[in-house]
Design brief:
It is a single chain. The protein has 201 residues and is of the alpha/beta class. It is built from seven helices and eight strands. A four-stranded parallel β-sheet has the order 2-1-3-4. The chain is elongated.
């Protein structure tokens, strides 16, 4: 899910806009509003930053920080500081971001417990530090599990005899999986071209 931040002053208007956008986001994004001091500590967690017109003086500073982290950002004009205009900006930007999002599906055995969640949470967290926007999914292995067009499928080690590796289907090594070592997977993801054809399908 894409995270959107509205930086404001008092937060009255931005809170109303954020609430209305979240109600109509259809799960594509979540909007949060913050005051300046908190936003300067938390901004790096977001993929889109909108600066309210009341804090226009802050925009140059935010722009520098956003560029350092490859974060989409925009200054809102007073005449566009309403739910409809902000929604148009958010929808178009989210569509652009989604085209760059890496969709990763972890395939697990039906009897597996919480380890896939721990592994994927750590993987996503580390990918975000490398400026990779990622949406993760965890699915139970089945005959049709590869029918969804994810960019990458990560396979639990115990399924290695049931799944054949290819460019988009990767079996996680047992030691890496059990020890939550995600660095080898991250290195592979960072060098992965998104347009690889899914040979498994």
């Amino acid at each position: 899910m894409i995270r959107v931040l509205i930086i404001c002053s008092a937060g009255i208007t931005s809170s109303m806009i954020a609430d209305e956008l979240n109600q109509s986001s259809e799960g594509k994004y979540i909007v949060t509003n913050m005051n300046i001091s908190l936003a300067l500590k938390e901004y790096w967690k977001y993929q889109l930053i909108l600066v309210a017109p009341q804090v226009k003086f802050l925009y140059e500073k935010i722009e520098v920080l956003a560029l350092e982290h490859n974060i989409h950002h925009q200054l809102l004009d007073f005449d566009k500081y309403n739910t409809k205009s902000v929604k148009d900006i958010v929808d178009s930007t989210v569509t652009e971001i989604e085209q760059k999002v890496m969709h990763i599906c972890f395939i697990k055995d039906k009897h597996t417990g919480y380890l896939p969640n721990l592994f994927m949470n750590k993987l996503v967290s580390e990918l975000e530090k490398n400026d990779v926007v990622c949406m993760s999914h965890i699915e139970v292995f089945s005959d049709d599990v590869f029918n969804n067009n994810f960019d990458i499928y990560l396979i639990e080690p115990k399924l290695m005899f049931y799944v054949k590796e290819n460019d988009k289907v990767w079996i996680i090594r047992t030691q890496e999986y059990q020890s939550l070592i995600v660095s080898p997977t991250i290195e592979r993801i960072l060098s992965f071209p998104k347009d690889v054809e899914n040979k498994y399908l």
